Amino acid sequence: MQKAMVEILNAIYEQDFLDCSYGFRPGRGQHQALDEVRRVICTRPTGWILELDITAYFDSIVRKQLMEMIEKRVRDGSVLRLIRKWIQVGVIEEGRLLVSETGTGQGQTISPLLANIYLHYVLDEWYENEVKPRLRGEVHEIRFADDAVLCFQYKEDAENVMEVLPKRFAKYGLTLHPEKTRLVELGRYAEENAKRQGKKPCTLDFLGLTHICARSRKGKFTVHVRTMKKRFRRGLTAIAEWCQENRHMPVDEQQKTLNAKLRGHYQYYGRPTNYRSIWRFFREVLHTWRKWLSRRTRGNGMTWEKYAAILRKHPLLLPRIVHPWRSAESHA
After folding, report:
1. Potential cystine with 24: which of 31, 68, 112, 262 (Cβ 3.0-4.6 Å)?
2. How confident is residue 332, by pLDDT bands cut at 50, 70 and 90?
3. What's the pTM?
């Protein structure tokens, strides 16, 4: 029933949602958002980026305000009653039913859409209609669910927005993380300015990738990406734990599962300029697999010669760039 409701509400809200929103929308995803971040930094007069992090977003949504937002576009009483029931469902923890006063209930099919509706009114529409006209320079927003970056031409504009954002969010029960919400200089002149001040150039973490100021082969300003250190370590830890738990499984079955995990990693992180990171990830997986194959028997460690023979028969999937440049001129 929730899936059917999502289809109905999508038909309504796809007319309202702005182009800056990429999360949980038909035909849109993380990679379109990442492409847009790169386009804005590389081709627009961007110098400063405000990286937003909302503390416990899905659990902080004020239900009454969410329903008031939905009632602006949905008048059917039976539909509204259903949504109200769904968002008030509690969770069972250690055999007890816990019911909170806020949140949309993560894990429900309808929750991502409801969360999108909330931020559409709280951030997107407000930023587009009320904030942008008051700023001096060019500004952009790119948002995927509760992950968002605001891009500015001038530092003064960024600081003004940074001052009013906490008040705006507090009005709707939301709090910006004081340490993870930060203003960074990132753009055409950021690297040069950082060197002049004797500092390292700032980087931007967004959707699992670290964005770094760089130069193309032609010497033009561009942005390169690297897998975020936290995501890199988390991925390797998960594979190491799997190898440990399943080291006695037949080697061909281990190979199939590891290749599926590597394929998933490349599917997400296999973006242009990130080849070095995914190749390093591949090498680490090679070492991890050998380590746990060596522990299948006591006292007989896996030599590199024996491991090489296993890899010839059961090769692991080599790194590859899955997502090409969006356009021929985008990396010039």
Report:
1. 112
2. very low
3. 0.89
